[in-house]
Amino acid sequence: MSQNPPELKKPLYGMFTDIPPHYDLINHLITLGLDKGWRKQAALTCIRSKPERILDLCCGTGDLAITIAKLADYGPGIKGLDYSQPMLDIAAEKAALAAKSIGFTQGDASKLPYKIEEFGCVGISFAFRNLTYKNALVDAHLSEIVRVLKPGGRFVIVESSQPSSGFIRALYHFYMRQYVANIGAWFSGNKAAYRYLAESACSYFSPSEMQTFLIEHGFKKVEYKPLFFGAAGVYVATK
Questions:
Q1: How far lies 175's CA from each of 134, 147, 160, 210, in Å?
Q2: CA distances from 199 to 57, 173, 225 (A)
């Protein structure tokens, strides 16, 4: 999630800076409402070791950060960062309605405005693909995540994945290209953004590729839990 020069921007950049009126609704529709449960699993994973400070990276409209705040029973310091100020404005409004104190910051994921080893946990909800899929700043993004994590800290990722079954994988790809691309385009008016979203999801890492990728970028251990027959998954990478 960074303010990249024009040649590095994806079609999603415009969608995230000029967000459609029903952005959250679109997310629920294209995941058949399952994203709420998946995000809850990620939030529970984030607070499992009771880290004192948690960062919701590429927080968007704040759903992961707010879910963490609602589920945590020990009062962690929670931050949220995104490049899109309109999304952050919505996130702040949602947090206020939920009576949760979360510090939201506009910023660049390749140059995080945080101290070395500031967080015990960094979480990211369906945005890691945007930081890594054909992104020229991928190494900077991973380097910054590792930098702000404490030793032994955990990076919790909930993201689309590739089902191990060839049949289910084919159904998943058909669903992404035919339903997600079209319903997203229809509701948002941004056909390119949702075509990109569908194609990037279909071409993204398998679980084993993701685990190798994270190890190569500075993590010592990576755990994986499949969701919905492997169409998505929760990864826990330990620094």
A1: 22, 37, 13, 22
A2: 23, 8, 23
pLDDT band, very low/low/confident/very high, at 18 (cuts 50, 70, 90): low
Measured CA to CA, the distance from residue 174 to residue 171 in angstroms comes to: 5
The helix (H) or strand (E) run that includes residue 172 is: helix 166-175
Rounded CA-CA distance 16/105 in Å is 15
Task: Provide the pLDDT for residue 8.
Answer: 44
- pLDDT higher than threshold 70 for residue 10: no
pLDDT, one tens digit per residue, over 157-168 is 999 999 999 999
Beta bridge partners of 55: 79, 122
Cβ atoms within 10 A of the Cβ of 208, count? 12
Position 39 scores a pLDDT of: 95
For tokens 């529709």, the residue is 29
Question: What pTM does this model have?
Answer: 0.90
State which amino acid sits at residue 139. Answer: D
**108 DSSP 8-state letter:** B
Structural domain 6-14+31-154+204-227, CATH architecture:
3-Layer(aba) Sandwich (3.40)
Per-residue pLDDT tens over the stretch 182-226: 887 887 777 888 888 899 999 999 999 999 999 999 999 999 999
Q: What is the DSSP string of 46-87?
A: HHTT--SEEEEET-TTSHHHHHHHHH-SS--EEEEEES-HHH
